Amino acid sequence: MSINRRQALGLAAGAVAFAAAGLPGRPAWATPEETEKRIAEFTGGKTPETGRLTLTAPEIAENGNTVPISIEVESAMEGDDVVEQVMILAEGNPNPDVAIFNFSEASGIAAATTRMRLARTQNVIAVAKMKDGSTFIDKKEVKVTIGGCGG
Amino acid sequence: MKNRYATVGLGAVLAFATALPAAAEPVDDALVIDGQTMTVRTAAPEGHPFDEVLSGWLFREAETRELEADSFQNPGMLYVDLGAEIWNTVDGTMGKSCATCHDDAADTMKGIAANYPKWDADAKRPINIELQIDKCRVENMGAEAYKFDAADQKALTTYIKHQSLGTPVAVDLSQGELQTWWDRGKDIYYTRTGQLNFACASCHEANSGQRIRADHLSQGQANGFPTYRLKQANMVSLHNRFRGCIRDTRAEFPKAFSDELMALEVYVTWRGTGLSVETPAVRQ
Amino acid sequence: MATPKPRVKLPKTASAGEIITIKTLISHQMESGQRKDKNGDPIPRQIINKFSCEFNGKPVFSCDIDPAISANPYFEFSAKVAESGTFKFSWVDDDGSVYEHEAGIEVK
């Protein structure tokens, strides 16, 4: 096996950096403060309540590149009882923004499913905004595993 | 969490991790795709080291298993669609597409890929789907062979193998010198290589069912390839995965379709005898 | 990259006022802008930044998308169908391209 010292060091350093950060050379992570700021902007400064909004996400994601998430808000979806938007945030990604779902009465049910990227173990947050101005929040921690060979 | 990975990280690459629960049984679950039940667990053929061969699907988490079970949600199906387009597209100097000779793949390719690799009497070596496509392109279409892992090669291979979805893998080792290549493939499977000194068998036989860091080690079956891998968010070919595995042992890895990897394909495919073709399988 | 191809799944028929489930998938790399190439240079962001679904010209559901949505983006949502008509789906790429798909439904 021919391998020189520099290659050996490179491999070792790479393995540690990889294990610590997922990928070498990543920018800084989003902070919980940034996430709070996004929520405040979205709700107009209101503190969202819990209840009515359910965020479903796996407890353990086999690969952070493709993590299924679903949201559902209890709502009649007519008259004043209409969900307008649901914002998804990931507080430990390089950038907390994930997506904003826009609903209408024609949606029938305020529910949606998508697949998202998680750079590491972190909280995924959903915030719903209703037509009457009320807001709701739900949060799930998703553990992102680092594979042996899957990486 | 972060610190633990930093300290454990390198050590865990060098030895099987103890930081996570060691043994985890494959699940006892049925894979049904569009009403068709896949064989994901079956009695091993004679001379096999295991009593039962198990699909890698049984070693994955619920979300990954569900993604493969839903033929709409499975992102690998996007590449099946792309492969269908290529199948019907004229290429090369002879003005032909695959469909010109082979008509509707749903009829003509049904079950075919489950019997590959086959013996290629012209080349006097085993031939797999990728090489069969190239042979057809060069000899019958006047088109160029695909570069290894070209997007079109992966999509067309995925499409052709998908026509055998549910068909049990069965390689006929009595063809030509296929048995000799099987013997050679077996040698490679058990030969330790690389700085980590791992053979294929170190992970996929001796430690199958255990965890290497967070990865649940399967039997390393070939029946789902090309496979949609969540890590790459793309199709991954069998020879790409072979090379990735060997690279992870920190050994020099052979070229795709080289004698070494063709022998390994013959042997590894045989180890999955009786499992359904699952292409496009979904793995982590 | 080949032209992104959408896949859409919804029922062909429904009863008036029924709430149906719609599933959509499109092939797209969703290059996040966070990755670097072999030379260490950043790979520019190129994602689908907006998905929308209309029924007979009226909005049903839409999504503003950031790079944290996975490659080959998948969206599943509902629609309340009052009459026969056509669903129109569109995906907007960072490069300005718009990928479209239409599917009809008959209300019995």
TrEMBL record, chain A:
Domain Ig-like SoxY, first and last residues per copy: 40-149
Domain of life: Bacteria
PROSITE patterns given in the database record: TAT (PS51318)
InterPro entries in the cross-refs: SoxY, SoxY_sf, Sulphur_oxidation_SoxY, TAT_signal
Signal peptide residues on this chain, from the entry's feature table: 1-30
Pfam families in alphabetical order: SoxY
Keywords assigned by UniProt, alphabetized: Signal
Name of the protein: Thiosulfate oxidation carrier protein SoxY
Source organism of this protein record: Nitratireductor arenosus
Higher taxonomy: Bacteria, Pseudomonadati, Pseudomonadota, Alphaproteobacteria, Hyphomicrobiales
Gene designation: soxY
TrEMBL record, chain C:
Signal sequence region: none
InterPro entries membership: Ig-like_fold, Ig_E-set, SoxZ, SoxZ_dom
Domain of life (superkingdom): Bacteria
Boundaries of every Sulphur oxidation protein SoxZ domain copy: 9-103
Protein name: Thiosulfate oxidation carrier complex protein SoxZ
Organism: Nitratireductor arenosus
